[in-house]
Amino acid sequence: MAELFEGIKINGMTLKNRSVRSATWAGMAEDGRCSMRLIELIADLAQGEVGLIITGFAYVNHILKTRAADLVSMSRPLIREPGLVRRWKEGDRKKAKCISCNQCFQAARSPDGVYCVVERSVKVKKKG
Ligand SMILES: Cc1cc2nc3c(=O)[nH]c(=O)nc-3n(C[C@H](O)[C@H](O)[C@H](O)COP(=O)(O)O)c2cc1C
Ligand code: SF4
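# iron/sulfur cluster complex -> structure
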């Protein structure tokens, strides 16, 4: 276990150890924005010496505009629409089609591996 406590450099960032708190939705955002409760939660983790803290989701327009965050993470929206970033870049700014139904978790356990269950059923209906 001693290895966990060794520092590491990642792309210019020095982490004091090799533990990472993965992205976790905390249900503490207010109106989609960071709240004092969220800040306190993250401060507790930092005081608990977690090496890298990945925050959970919140609305991103504001934090991107103000440069409060450098990167935006998406998982399910990109399962449904692998071309989503290109679509937005090219000017079609309609919301992501993913409806957050979580059915892709089941699909990941299927022999086909992960896919958007909703998108596939839409395609089947269209063919139908
Ligand atoms: C099918 C599927 C598999 C996932 N696998 C992992 C995983 O292996 N490790 C992990 O930390 N998060 C995993 N996640 C969580 C995502 O990385 C992400 O944090 C979560 O889906 C919320 O982001 P989203 O609203 O953009 O989907 C998975 C999510 C989905 C839908
Ligand atoms: S199955 Fe549901 S949650 Fe998963 S990508 Fe498709 S619409 Fe989104």
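# post-check
Residues 76, 79-80, 98-104, 116-119 surround iron/sulfur cluster (ligand 2) (CB under 6 Å).
The longest strand covers residues 8-10.
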